[in-house]
């Protein structure tokens, strides 16, 4: 079969799945989701699963990961397990509000929506759409453009549940919301979840997302997250990807920022088979600032592909993209960073860096900056490096009695430190630093030592 | 402690060391002086095991055992310390984790258990006080953003932490103003013991006012061309290195 017809078959299968389940989808969901579904499906039928003919998807073969036979469900398949058996948080200092999502569905170990002191609401996206349709409607599908990306269209057409976080005007505490996305199933599974984070004017949110697989099955996740920051809002968002290497993941996030808001969006990738992360940022109000960061440690045949797009739509905004990869064995990686400075976005500061360390001659990375600047009073820079560890630094460490292996570990750890250092929640930073250290030492078996300390059920 | 016999070394096929002979005993401080390009730093690098250089002849015994076949880390664990002329900046590696790794690797080699966190921090504190090191220095990344003086002080601090048997200090005085030089020299002198030894490599006699050597050797053209006591350093300062060259050529 030719690749083209393979893709058409795949696109048709997914569309058929939609039409044969449309009534069920519509009847089980809120009108907020349903009102967008038909248009999203129409868009998916035009775009389909992106293959290499799409400029933004040249580095990763997306149709291939959709071609393995995976089970797909419109209704939640109840997976019963004892949360206490699986998890205990070993960062006691990290006092988090936990949201557990299993195979894309909110896990009812606690109320589907919780209103916390200060008015913050966290819980199930499906439930939020039922209880607060007007609030959701104001943001849902407003930032995630399903007309440009078939994967976003697919997610929107099938959207049912995921995580919802709402921080009302002026609210917020140091307490982080921890979202744990667990893949747990006796069979191979296709999972989509849809998340929405609303941080209103002057509010603060800290969000920690942990992606884990607890079954040694093959999973494919296609998730979409929309994030809105009102004027002067603050967001610190850390996503830890640590699924088993049979899991493939496409994660697309849209960060929409209004005046003088600031956001850190940090993705730490440790394990997982083929991972594609899209982060779209729109700096829509004057004086907004954004840091989109990534640290990936990959080996064997892992593949990590990051695509970032920062749209400077207002003047006096600052953006900084910094992605670091360490590739061992035959791992492959790609980074594409696009910066768009619109004609009115004077006094823009936009920076982009992608630094890579290749541990073997078989590892491969491709890096591509794209700058489109339509304003004349701006400062923009981009830079990429691909290299090995500094032999002089290794000798320096050796001369103090440190073995080459330890020296290399220290240097790799140091390389990643710039990204880890940006994590503002200190116990989390320490814990993630420790995880990265373990990952570098090859001591991290997928999920046995995540911040939640999953036990050996993998 | 250290016997260097007819040591020859090349870099990219060019011979830099052309037959070095040197005996260093416990408790001694040897100064090696010489003009630029005479091979001083090469000698230090070869003794520490840098693989940039190829040893083409001779042998080196350290405490009676052959040294040249060992990796740099094994030499360090056996008790050799190189104070770098240009200490390397390692962003992201804190001084604390650097030193803890080094000490524990050395202890492992000697069959000792890892040092407890409490003991380690106490050791750091004591040595910082001994070396008059700013506390903040230790929490920073290795040499990152350090001034020239801080970098050299940090080398001596590491030496204090690791307590080597033989310290080779490669142009520790270069780039230091007189105050920094005094501090560094004071630190070094505090580490002098009857059971260890030092090789102090320097271009200028100035350092030797503060670290007083037992022996002075002049390296020129890859060979030690003259040896003497500390008065040789003053003679060199007065007459310049051309004097040695002329004397050799004569």
Write a concise synopsis of the structure shown.
Chain A has 458 residues and is an alpha/beta fold. Chain A has eleven helices and 21 strands.
Description:
The complex is a heterodimer of chains A (458) and B (250). Chain A is of the alpha/beta class and 458 residues long. Chain A has helices at 3-28, 31-34, 37-47, 62-67, 83-86, 125-131, 133-137, 150-158, 391-398, 404-420, 426-440; strands at 96-102, 105-106, 113-115, 121-124, 163-167, 176-183, 189-191, 194-199, 204-213, 219-229, 234-242, 248-257, 262-271, 274-283, 289-298, 303-312, 318-327, 332-341, 349-358, 364-373, 379-387. Chain A has eleven helices and 21 strands. In chain A, strands 3, 4, 5, 7, 8, 10, 12, 14, 16, 18 and 20 form an eleven-stranded mixed sheet that branches. A ten-stranded mixed sheet of chain A has the order 2-1-6-9-11-13-15-17-19-21, with helices on one face. The longest helix of chain A has 26 residues, at 3-28. Chain B has a single domain (2-90, 164-249), classed as 3-Layer(aba) Sandwich (Rossmann fold). Chain B has nine helices and twelve strands. A six-stranded mixed sheet of chain B has the order 6-9-10-3-11-12, sandwiched between helices. Chain B has a four-stranded antiparallel sheet with strand order 2-1-4-5, with helices on one face. Chain B starts with a strand and ends with a helix. The relative contact order of chain B is 0.18. The chains are: A alpha/beta (458), B alpha/beta (250). Chain A binds chain B through residues 390, 392-393, 395-404, 406, 410-411, 413-418, and chain B through 48-51, 71-73, 75-77, 81-82, 84, 87-88, 90-93, 97-98, 101-102, 105-106, 109, 141, 158, 162.
The proportion of residues in beta strands of chain A is 35-45%
CATH class of chain B: Alpha Beta
DSSP summary, beta strand count of chain B: 12
Largest interface: A-B, 22 and 29 residues
- CA gyration radius of chain A, whole angstroms: 21 Å
Largest sheet geometry of chain A? 11 strands, mixed
Q: Structural class from helices and strands of chain B? A: alpha/beta
Order of strands, main sheet of chain B, comes to: 6-9-10-3-11-12
Give the strand tally of chain A: 21
Overall pLDDT score of chain B: 91
Number of domains of chain A: 1
The main β sheet of chain B shows up as: 6 strands, mixed
The residue-averaged pLDDT of chain A reads 90
**Multimer state:** heterodimer
At the fold tier of CATH, the topology name of chain B is: Rossmann fold
**What's the N-to-C terminus distance of chain B?**
34 Å
* Content of β-strand of chain B: 25-35%
Task: Give the % helix of chain B.
Answer: 25-40%
Low-confidence stretches of chain A: 446-458
Rg value of chain B? 18 Å
């Amino acid at each position: 079969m030719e690749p083209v017809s393979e893709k058409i078959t795949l696109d048709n299968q997914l569309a058929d799945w939609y039409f044969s389940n449309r009534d069920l989808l519509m009847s089980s969901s809120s009108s907020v989701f349903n009102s967008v579904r038909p248009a999203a499906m129409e868009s998916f039928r035009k775009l389909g699963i992106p293959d290499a003919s799409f400029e933004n998807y040249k580095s990763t073969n997306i149709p291939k990961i959709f071609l393995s036979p995976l089970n797909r469900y419109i209704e939640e398949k109840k997976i019963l397990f004892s949360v206490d058996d699986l998890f205990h948080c070993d960062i006691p200092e990290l006092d988090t509000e936990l949201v557990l999502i299993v195979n894309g569905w909110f896990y009812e170990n606690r109320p589907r929506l919780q209103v916390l002191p200060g008015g913050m609401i966290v819980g199930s996206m499906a439930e939020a759409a039922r209880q607060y349709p007007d609030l959701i409607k104001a943001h849902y599908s407003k930032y995630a453009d399903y007309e440009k990306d078939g994967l976003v269209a697919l997610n929107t057409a099938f959207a049912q549940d995921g995580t919802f976080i709402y921080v009302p005007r002026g609210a917020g505490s140091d307490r982080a919301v921890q979202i744990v996305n667990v893949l747990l199933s006796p069979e191979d599974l296709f999972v989509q979840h849809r998340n929405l984070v609303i941080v209103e004017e002057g509010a603060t949110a800290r969000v920690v997302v942990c992606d884990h697989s607890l079954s040694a099955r093959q999973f494919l996740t296609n998730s979409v997250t929309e994030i809105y920051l009102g004027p002067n809002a603050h967001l610190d968002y850390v996503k830890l990807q640590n699924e088993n290497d049979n899991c493939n993941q496409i994660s697309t996030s849209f960060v929409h920022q209004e005046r003088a808001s600031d956001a850190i969006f940090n993705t730490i990738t440790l394990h997982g088979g083929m991972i594609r992360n899209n982060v779209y940022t729109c700096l829509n109000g004057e004086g907004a600032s954004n840091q989109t960061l990534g640290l990936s440690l990959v080996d064997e045949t892992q593949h990590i592909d990051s695509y970032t797009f920062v749209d400077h739509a207002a003047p006096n905004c600052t953006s900084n993209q910094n992605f670091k990869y360490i590739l061992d064995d035959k791992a492959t990686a790609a980074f594409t960073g696009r910066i768009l400075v619109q004609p009115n976005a004077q006094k823009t500061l936009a920076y982009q860096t992608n630094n890579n360390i290749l541990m073997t001659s078989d590892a491969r990375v491709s890096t591509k900056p794209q700058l489109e600047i339509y304003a004349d009073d701006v400062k923009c820079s981009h830079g990429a490096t691909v290299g090995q560890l500094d032999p002089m630094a290794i000798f320096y460490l050796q001369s103090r009695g440190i073995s080459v292996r330890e020296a290399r570990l220290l240097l790799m750890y140091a390389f990643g430190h710039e990204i880890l250092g940006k994590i503002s929640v200190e116990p989390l930073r320490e814990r993630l630093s420790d995880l990265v250290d373990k990952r570098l030492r090859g001591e991290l078996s997928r999920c046995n030592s995540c911040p939640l300390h999953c036990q050996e059920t993998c | 402690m250290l016997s260097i016999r007819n040591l020859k070394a090349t870099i990219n096929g060019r011979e830099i060391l052309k037959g070095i002979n040197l005996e260093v005993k416990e408790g001694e401080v040897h100064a090696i002086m010489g003009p630029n390009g005479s091979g001083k730093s090469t000698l230090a690098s070869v003794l520490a095991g840098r693989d940039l250089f190829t040893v083409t002849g001779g042998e080196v015994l350290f405490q009676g055992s052959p040294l040249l076949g060992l990796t740099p880390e094994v030499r360090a664990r056996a008790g050799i310390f190189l104070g770098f002329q240009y200490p390397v900046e390692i962003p992201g590696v804190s001084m604390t984790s650097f030193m803890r790794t080094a000490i524990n690797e050395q202890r492992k080699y000697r069959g000792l258990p890892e040092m407890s966190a409490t003991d380690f921090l106490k050791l750091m504190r004591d040595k910082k006080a001994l070396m008059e090191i700013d506390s903040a220095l230790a929490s920073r990344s290795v040499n990152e953003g350090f001034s020239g003086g801080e970098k050299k002080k940090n080398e001596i601090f590491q030496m204090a932490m690791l307590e080597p048997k033989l310290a080779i200090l490669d142009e520790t005085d270069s780039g230091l103003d007189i105050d920094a030089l005094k501090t560094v020299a004071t630190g070094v002198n505090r580490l002098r013991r009857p059971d260890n030894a030092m090789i102090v490599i320097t271009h200028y006699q100035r350092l030797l006012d503060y670290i007083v050597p037992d022996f002075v050797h002049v390296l020129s053209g890859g060979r030690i061309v003259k040896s003497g006591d500390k008065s040789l350093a003053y003679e060199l300062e007065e007459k310049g290195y051309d004097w040695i060259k002329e004397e050799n050529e004569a």
